[in-house]
Write a structure and sequence with these properties.
single chain, alpha/beta, FAD/NAD(P)-binding domain, Enolase-like, domain 1, 3 domains, 8-stranded mixed beta sheet, 5-stranded parallel beta sheet
Length: 451
């Protein structure tokens, strides 16, 4: 009899397993593919590795002369996709090996195979029935399938980061930050890129202020956008190297499917409720309608971020152990690895307005920050939303090359229920990018120092 059986070994699953092992729970993790799930093997890590290669290539090609480096011939350099993939593979192998070591170190049994839930306390896998006190579903998500009769014409994320010849005209399908990220990476490699969006906007959950700036950046970089085009078969709109949308056409040699992902729900002999979008329905503690069965990460539809899935999983482990906490998703950062990066935490401006809260917006630009200017990355801002009576920080948005790291400071402010007065009084070393927080704090209290 196990204390906990976890189905799926992505960031939600393996982090939960390690935490459970540390707390003395007899735990097993079931994985039908590879340890690390989508994030480590085909998503977060390889995509960021490729993005860094693309950013370095773009900077060498376009910024070298400005930084005083002579002798680089733009026509003589090229982006080597296969070498970039090999570097990515090495990083993935190191991380997945590390996860496997940590599972073993913490006494977690790893069972290979596809799980089937038999009851609230039993799971079937690889010709054996496993008894357990609790079950955690952490099976993740997948892209909605886009069909094509042309072989290897539509690439799913699991197929993308492999050695191959990359064509010139690439179309990315999707509204997610990942879709934007991939499109920008291909654009920096020198490819002709278009984004086909199934909805009327991009970057779900992001504040519209951030969305507008990213859309402006895409337009500046001449990445073509086509909105409100949702389909599950590409053949009907493809002919002779072009996709046709009404009177509009885009060149296309390859389609990358990065549409908003849907839940992977494991097989079950008992009824586990789903919501209207097909995600597993859960309560405030990520527990399903079946007592003792929990669902964390992408599969419950609350968030598509790996770190949020990990936080949900650790919350469940604590809950099982009788530790009462509140799972507040508004205190978890939303990171978007675009160029420049975008990140936010707390409430969006639209959400604050909907609640009828009187608020103030204070913003400070990267173009007035000394460190940003020296690095040549002066595009972007930090933006703080605070309520007017006491100055409590309600939300923070950042657009900057390292926004996904900077947002951690905002997370600390949110966790401590800090005010803009606290932000303004926090001393930051000079010169650093982080000084923009102090400046935005002063802007909310009175006036920024360097604005």
């Amino acid at each position: 009899m196990y204390d906990l059986v976890i189905i799926g070994s992505g960031p939600a699953g393996y982090v939960s397993a390690i935490r459970a092992g540390q707390m003395g729970l007899k735990t097993a993790i079931i994985e039908k593919n590879v340890i690390g799930g989508m994030c480590l093997n085909w998503g977060c890590i390889p995509s960021k590795a490729i993005m860094e290669s693309a950013k370095l290539f773009d900077r060498i090609a376009n910024d070298s002369n400005r930084f005083g480096i002579d002798g680089i011939d733009k026509k003589a350099i090229s982006f080597n996709w296969n070498k970039a993939v090999k570097r990515s593979d090495g990083i993935v192998k190191k991380l997945t090996t590390g996860v496997g070591f940590l599972l073993k170190k913490n006494g977690i049994e790893v069972i290979e195979g596809e799980a089937k839930i038999l009851s609230a306390n039993s799971v079937y896998v690889s010709n054996r029935t496993i008894e357990t006190k609790h079950i955690m579903i952490a099976t993740g998500s997948k892209s909605p399938e886009v069909m094509s009769s042309i072989e290897a014409f539509v690439l799913e994320p699991t197929q993308l980061f492999k050695e191959r010849e990359m064509p010139q005209n690439i179309v990315v399908l999707g509204e997610t930050p990942t879709a934007i990220e991939l499109a920008q990476a291909f654009n920096m490699m020198g490819k002709n890129v278009s984004i086909v969006v199934p909805t009327e906007s991009v970057m779900p959950f992001a504040d519209q202020y951030l969305v507008d700036h990213i859309l402006a950046k895409l337009k500046k970089d001449r990445i073509k956008m086509v909105f409100n085009q949702n389909f599950d078969n590409i053949d009907s709109i493809y002919k002779e190297g072009k996709l046709t949308f009404g009177e509009e056409q885009v060149d296309c040699d390859l389609v990358v499917n990065s549409k908003r992902r849907i839940a992977i729900v494991p097989s079950s002999e008992i009824a586990i409720d789903l919501d209207e979008k097909g995600y597993i329905a859960v309560d405030e503690n990520c527990e399903t309608n079946v007592k003792g069965i929990f669902a964390v990460g992408d599969v419950n539809g609350m968030s598509y971020y790996a770190h949020v899935g990990s936080a949900q999983g650790m919350h469940v482990v604590n809950f099982i152990q009788g530790i009462q906490q509140k799972l507040d998703l508004k205190k978890y950062p939303l990171n978007m690895y675009t160029v420049p990066e975008a990140a936010q935490i707390g409430y969006t401006e639209a959400e604050i307005k909907a609640q009828g809260i009187e608020y103030k917006v204070s913003e400070f630009p990267m173009s007035a920050n000394g460190k940003a200017l020296t690095e040549g990355h002066n595009e972007g801002f930090v933006r703080i939303l605070s309520e007017t009576k006491y100055g409590e920080v309600l939300g923070v948005q950042i657009l900057a090359p390292n926004a996904t790291d900077m947002i951690a400071e905002a997370a600390a402010y949110m966790e401590m229920e800090a005010t803009v007065y606290d932000v303004a009084q926090t001393v930051h070393a000079h010169p650093t990018i982080s000084e923009v927080f102090m400046e935005a704090g002063f802007e909310a209290v009175d006036k920024a120092i360097h604005k």
